[in-house]
Amino acid sequence: MVITPNIPNLPYAERNGVKYFSLVAEPVKSEILPGIYMNAWGYNGSSPGPTICVYPGDYVCIRVFNKLPQPTSVHWHGLDIPNVMDGVPDIEPSPRIDPGGYFDYHFKINNPPGTHMYHSHFYPVFQDMMGLEGGFMILDPQESEKDVQRDYYIMLGSFKLKDIPAGVLERGVYNIDPFSETANFFTMNGRCFPYTAPLPVSEGDRIRIRFGNVGMANHPIHLHGHQFLETAVDGNSIARENQLKKSTILVSSGTTRDIELIANNPGRWPLHCHFPHHVSNNMTLPLGGMATAMVYEGFPKI
């Protein structure tokens, strides 16, 4: 099963061969660092929202309630689904969801196993940058823990918080400027280092790390102490003979990337964006922002 550190997986109820999920789009006070909150928008109380896990061939019904002060929609990014279910009401026959209303997105999972995302596609210049996003995993029914021992998902985020001067970290609740083309806080699964959750591993494990990015910035993600293979792009597997060995992978906006590696070098290893500004918290020292650590069993977490 895919683990999204700091973010739960979305539960479902199965009736008559259909998996029923429920998402509530709502304002969320998101704690990105201890005592530092941003007034975000999210799903089911978190931003990013809970991770959805399904299998190829599943029939799903995802009821989306709108508790926001403006209409919204949900786009199932990368999924091959009917036009009316794709969630872009400005172009498609897919409806907008007005405040206080809901819509049932129902479709069959036609894609193969892979990493996808969901996010708002109504007024995205505002709603996406407020944090309306989450992960959507199509799992491989043939895969077992003998194949991959640790399977992590990390959603990358960037936010401009208003009324906090550069070079300062003050406890408080801050509003997001969704129209800014720059950011001062960079997150993994809604948190900044050192508040991000580490990725525990054991020596000899095969590790998969999935990345997703909806926001304005691109992120070259670098892992210390290990080489990895890029195994999938946008939910599509890369043939083994075409997989490249790397230590840094670019996760550009609108894409997902999967990497796999063998845990063969014990220690506590940084995993971070390599843009220097993206590993700071509002331009303060020391290390912060879009970073975490892959931590072997027996080593302290941080």
Automatic annotation (TrEMBL):
InterPro entries: Cu-oxidase-like_N, Cu-oxidase_C, Cu-oxidase_fam, Cupredoxin. SUPFAM superfamilies: Cupredoxins. GO terms for molecular function: copper ion binding; oxidoreductase activity. Residues 38-142, 177-285 form the Plastocyanin-like domain. It comes from the Bacteria. PANTHER family: MULTI-COPPER OXIDASE (PTHR11709). This is Copper oxidase. It comes from Paenibacillus protaetiae.
